[in-house]
Amino acid sequence: METSQRIARSQPLATTAMHGRVDAMKARGEEVIDFSIAISHFQAPESVLQAVRDGLKQPSLPYTTVGGDAGIRARLAAKVSSENGIAASASEIIVTNGAKQALYQALYVMADPGDAVIIFKPHWPAYVTTCKLLGLEPVLVDLPATVSAEFLDSLPPAKILIVNNPHNPTGGVLRADEIERIAAWLKRTGTRAIVDESYEKLIFEGVHTSLAARPDWQQIGIVSIYSASQSYAMMGWRAGFAVAPSNIVTAMETLQGPITAAAPMLIQLALASAFESGEPMAMLHEYRQRRDMVLDMVHGLPWMTMRCPASGPYLWGDVSALTMDTKQFAEELLNQYAVALMPGDALGAPGFIRIGYISDDIATLRRGVEAIIRYGNARYRAR
């Protein structure tokens, strides 16, 4: 049976495709170390687990309105008001089945086919893939070390700017002055913004500032996306939400209604409890130790440079001294050493590799990094 032309023109998301390959290998009984995505070895916070237990004791878990239960939306509005400085009401919150759904729906209702969307690279692959699915035109621009007014003024006209802060994969965190410049540019050009703040809780150095933390965020047209997946070790829960002007939320509900309707009430309870559970300090402490261990292991390699990320569950390595074809790097590493990682080509940056360092135990992390080093050293000597 033939498929539609539009899906025939589409490609699977690179990150999920690699993870799917790893799962298939494991299902066949093969031992694989998976650094291709970040899956925390931590459990969700106890308050989240308790919220689920309590939810299961309720007489029923009903359908809610598409955008989410009114009480849950109010709790999430209180979260972004107190923690992010975003003055939002419950009507400006929509609960979604993870951040990807929020991204898809925001792009769908904010732009029409053919509209340009600026995406900084390296980038999370879903930004580009989602734009292409919707017939939008992704415009890839190298993310500079500092977002200056001159850089912003050099950007081409676009309907939407996607901002990822904290940034996947580099781990960069935008400074408050950079956020102000972006807001001024948005106002000056009339460009709207989608801001992915999924890693807001995973910051080692610096301070996270929300672009929408300003009184005129609705007039500028800013949609902010949040996820419990990484911040609270809830990858499989598919729990996320977006903050947007009320007319955008209404439009996103119109789209979400016939697709998934509301997120499950049990997940909504878990989501609100996660964001009320405080800072994940124990998790951050261990992540920092893991990050520093890997940085120590790769320090001084002649073929890789890896900077210390200020945030996030990933390490971003420059292997351009060895190869610009990181797809081949990733394939050979998987085939020869049973270690999976994400090639930079998939994130718009050939010559780089992304390592998710938060899965499994420390011994497995060390063993996987040692395999990467052995593989790279062998290729470097054979040049």
Automatic annotation (TrEMBL):
Record keyword Protease present: no
GO molecular function, one term: pyridoxal phosphate binding
Cofactor(s) for this UniProt protein: pyridoxal 5'-phosphate
Pfam family, one: Aminotran_1_2
This protein's UniProt keywords: Aminotransferase, Pyridoxal phosphate, Transferase
EC number from the UniProt entry: 2.6.1.1
Aminotransferase class I/classII large domain ranges (all copies): 31-372
GO biological process: amino acid metabolic process
Name used for this protein in its record: Aminotransferase class I/II-fold pyridoxal phosphate-dependent enzyme
Lineage: Bacteria, Pseudomonadati, Pseudomonadota, Betaproteobacteria, Burkholderiales
